[in-house]
Amino acid sequence: MTLLQVQDLGVTFGGVQALTDVSLSVDTGTVHGLIGGNGAGKTTLLNCVGRAVSPDRGRIVFDGHDLLTLPPHAIASRGITRTFQNLALIEGATVLENVCVGHEPGAHTARWSDFFPGRRRSLLQTSATHVAMEALSQLGLARHADERIDGLPYGVRKSIEIARALCARPRLLMLDEPTAGLNGREMADLAVALANIRSGSVLTILLITHHLEFLLRVADRVTVLELGRVIAEGPPELVQTDERVRNSYLGTA
């Protein structure tokens, strides 16, 4: 069943057409890859789904609801969370504290829970800690829970952001370049972690990556963008077999 439907999406920035008539369907419980060269419009598309960018035209339907009728702050409550290309962790805090920030309905509990009476505060913190530890365990990071963010390897820090996004118990998780800066071992570990996450819940993932080997390992379907337009969609193997995709994404050599 289709969970996310993007129809004829168009976005213009200062006269530059970032997306032109982009359409795609993401099925429930799948990993859907979004690939293309720099400037293809991949992050812009995620920003539209997350309502950080308002498209000029088109529709975005999530589980039968038109997302473009909602304000940005209502997107998370619909079951959509994401990570970004750049790390946005709280330096000086522990791994557990960073992940607890993503807890819903107690988002930011680690920072504002002191305003609540004692029992309410305790319940929020207990719930957030439980969900955060569950997310860390799914990503193989539970052993780092009490460590401070400072000094942890880059790959671990990237995975911590994914754990934080999982704390909201999303139905759709959008990952923007989760493999950027990772070495081969870290990418393999992330692929295993994503498989574990999917096996434990009905989670749909829309991800951007430039790493072909990782894409082939985790994706069920792929949409290829070139200069803001969809040029192909299908199984991940099309990146290797479709001539236009190979020319655009891999080069002609």
Question: Any overview of this molecule?
Answer:
The chain is α/β, with parallel strands linked by helices. It is about 35% helix and about 25% strand. The strands form two sheets. Strands 6-7-8-3-9-10 form a six-stranded mixed β-sheet, with helices on both faces. Strands 2-1-4-5 form a four-stranded antiparallel β-sheet, covered by helices on one side. It starts with a strand and ends with a helix.
Secondary structure blueprint with pairings:
Elements: E1 2-13, E2 16-27, E3 31-35, H1 42-49, E4 57-62, E5 65-66, E6 80-82, H2 95-100, H3 109-112, H4 118-138, H5 154-166, E7 172-176, H6 184-200, E8 204-208, H7 212-218, E9 221-226, E10 229-234, H8 238-241, H9 243-250
Parallel strand pairs: 3-8, 3-9, 6-7, 7-8
Antiparallel strand pairs: 1-2, 1-4, 4-5, 9-10
Can you tag this structure with a few keywords?
253 residues; six-stranded mixed β-sheet; four-stranded antiparallel β-sheet; 9 helices
Structure described in brief:
Helices cover 35% and strands 25% of the residues.
Q: How many strands appear in the DSSP assignment?
A: 10
N-end to C-end Cα span? 39 Å
CA-based shape: globular
Order of helix and strand elements from N to C terminus: EEEHEEEHHHHEHEHEEHH
Please describe the biggest sheet, giving its number of strands, its sense, and whether it closes into a barrel.
Answer: 6 strands, mixed
Nearest-integer average pLDDT: 86
| Helix share bin | 25-40%
Strand order, main sheet: write it out.
6-7-8-3-9-10
